[in-house]
Amino acid sequence: MRRYDPRWLIVTLANLLLCWLVGLANHYLAVFHVPLLGDWSVYLYLGGLMVTYGALRLDSAHGLTATILTAFMVDSLEPVPFGTSLFLFTLVHVTVLYGRQRFPREGAIFAIVVALLANLFLVIALSFLLIGANPRPGSAWLRIFVDLFFSQVAIVLVAPWFIALQDRAMEIAQIHPETGRHVLR
Known about the structure:
By secondary structure, the protein is mainly alpha-helical. It has a single domain, classed as Arp2/3 complex 21 kDa subunit ARPC3 (Orthogonal Bundle), CATH 1.10.1760. 69% of the residues lie in helices and 3% in strands.
């Protein structure tokens, strides 16, 4: 039996990698030129994808630990009051954890659907919590929905790779994601 179980660390490090890659993408998408349309900017938010693997594949203790550490990381990077992402990520994690027994959680398709729904909830919840700080809240909704659309498209494109990355990391560490038992190759 294994003395140390690094499942939470593997998922947290994968989420850190995703957060870094999304930060790079957001840097380049901050202002880009579209011919005949002018300059545009898009902000990608993939918080739903960061919660999905830990909630679907890990046990409750390791998954919640990875989600909480990821939420602290997102809270430190996003312009939201500290603890906002912690509350919302934990809420999404517990909700998915509660309903995961009813669905095939090992397939990538279901994980993508869960990531899309979780991201939709997170973006809408963050928007309602923070829209009051906008000087023109009515005009901000169009921007929010455009960013949400591009974020959902990014999740559909990135989620298969990200889930396979985490599965492969567990395989390299020779750990079964759900039980934590040693797996022989």
